[in-house]
């Protein structure tokens, strides 16, 4: 692998069961992917696609309503194997750190790989930005992605629960947190009192 470090901001959307009566053997499958590739603090590439689920190809009404997604769009999506080829290509381009909001995206990807008997595509590091955010601000609970952006007084990108929009929002939030970390790590400049010994000055001018 060559080149500078690549940061991959990834968001997936998954299938959902209708309710408590899950189909036998049901598990969440990836149905939409959003990727933002960043090098040298600049976006190099964006990728977005729908993905056809293998095991349970028919979306539940709950899933279609929640994600505002149609069965037709999913039917026209890429296969899971094609998605894995794209993820592997990103992984091979440069040393890669995958950054997600929460740990569900990589958990579901791993499980989908196992169920489809395909090798997991990433070999680099992983960062859960929601946990970093929680630790940085001392929050007791993990904050939702869009709520976290609003706490910064910013607006999220596009529509919530659209994979590419959420990946872009994760990247924008990452930049905000990293800027704050750098700001807090800078040593504070010395005050005038630190620079000169005030007692000497006072003695000099004392009558």
Would you spell out the secondary-structure blueprint of this structure?
Layout: E1 6-14, E2 30-39, E3 42-50, H1 61-67, H2 71-75, H3 80-93, E4 96-100, H4 104-116, E5 125-128, H5 129-137, H6 145-151, H7 163-185, H8 192-195, H9 198-205
Parallel strand pairs: 1-4, 4-5
Antiparallel strand pairs: 1-2, 2-3
GO molecular function: exonuclease activity
Organism: Metabacillus halosaccharovorans
Domain Exonuclease: 6-183
Overall description:
With 207 residues, the protein is α/β, with parallel strands linked by helices. It has one domain (6-205): 2-Layer Sandwich (Nucleotidyltransferase, domain 5), CATH 3.30.420.10. The chain is built from nine helices and five strands. It has a five-stranded mixed sheet. It starts with 5 loop residues before the first strand and ends with a helix. The mean pLDDT is 88. Pfam families: RNase_T. One of its GO terms (molecular function) is exonuclease activity.
Order of helices and strands: EEEHHHEHEHHHHH
**Share of helix among residues?**
40-55%
* Strand adjacency order, main sheet: 3-2-1-4-5
Instruction: Give the class-level CATH name.
Output: Alpha Beta
Largest sheet: 5 strands, mixed
- Counted beta strands: 5
Keywords: Exonuclease, Hydrolase, Nuclease
Organism: Metabacillus halosaccharovorans
GO molecular function, one term: exonuclease activity
Protein name: 3'-5' exonuclease KapD
Pick out its properties.
5 strands, single chain, alpha/beta, Nucleotidyltransferase, domain 5, five-stranded mixed sheet, 207 residues
